[in-house]
Amino acid sequence: MSSTLDQTTTTTEASSAPRSDPAGRGWVLAGLGAGVLGIAGAIASGTLGAVYDPDLAGDATAITERLSEQVPQIIAFHTATMLSCVLLLVFAAGLHRQLRARTAAESLVPGIAVAGLGLVAVAQLLGAGLTTEFAFGLAGDPGLLVPETAVFFNHWIGTIPWLWGGAGLTGLALASAALRQGAYARWLGWVSLVLGGITALFLVSPLQYMAGMTGPLWLVVVAAGLLRSTRAA
User: Fold this and answer.
1) What is the distance between the alpha carbons of residues 220 and 229, in angstroms, rounded to a whole number?
2) pLDDT value for 23
3) pTM for this structure?
4) Which of 66, 150, 154, 224 is paired with 195 by a 20 to 30 Å CA distance?
């Protein structure tokens, strides 16, 4: 009797074995932190409203002077936004892995979910990308800055890091996984459908920055729900 191992049978059996659900909750905590810091970054950005002040409208020099008094807020915005960006990538990786374990092998849900959060991370990275240039310039001698560039910077940080529309795609993907494939509790699916749907609508509308209000909120609720489920398990 031959003792040779049948490699074809072994490979087939291994590929058909159920995939285990990823253990640990560090990635879920990262998502919760990303959502909270996303909200904090939006609040800090909202305090930098010199360019939207009617009393300063059209006066680039006055706007630059106002911004020079708000360097701590600029640093707070930058720090919160970039920490959120880093943590969001950790959460995206963990969510992608879990969705692959809980959804059908041919499902597009895991890929759409991670792509949506990737769009948000890119917007955060770019949204905070000019703060180094202007924070140091405003803290030093604001007179060395061309006032119109400071006006542009104020518009930039009031818009780009608020582009959380990609989270709407992730929310809709999670809703599909929960409501159609039973991957999560149905309440989590409905929350993702509502908040994710609204966020996705902002993504395709001219009011894209409004997604900065609903996207982080969705992330906090979902991460809290996932954290609760991991504790129960």
Assistant:
1) 14
2) 59
3) 0.85
4) 154
Which residues, including other chains, have CB under 8 Å from residue 209's CB and lie 6 or more apart?
158, 159, 162, 163, 202
> Does residue 9 belong to any structural domain of this protein?
no
Residue 12 lies in a domain: no
CA dihedral in degrees (99, 105, 111, 112; nearest 10)? -80
* 138 within 8 A of 67, measured Cβ to Cβ: yes
d(CA 113, CA 28): 15
CA distance 219 to 142: 38
- The string of DSSP codes covering 188-200 is HHHHHHHHHHHHH
Q: Would you mind telling me the total number of residues written for the chain in this entry?
A: 233
Domain that holds residue 108: 23-232
**H or E stretch covering 137:** helix 131-139
Describe the crossing of helices 211-232 and 71-102 by its angle, rounded to 10 degrees. Answer: 50
Which amino acid, residue 30?
A: A
Mean pLDDT (the chain, rounded): 88
Question: Is 106 domain-assigned?
Answer: yes
How many folded domains does the chain comprise?
1
pLDDT, residue 100, reads: 95
For residue 85, is it within any domain?
yes
For the chain, residues with pLDDT lower than 70 are 1-23, 230-233
Cβ atoms of 27 and 90 closer than 8 Å: yes
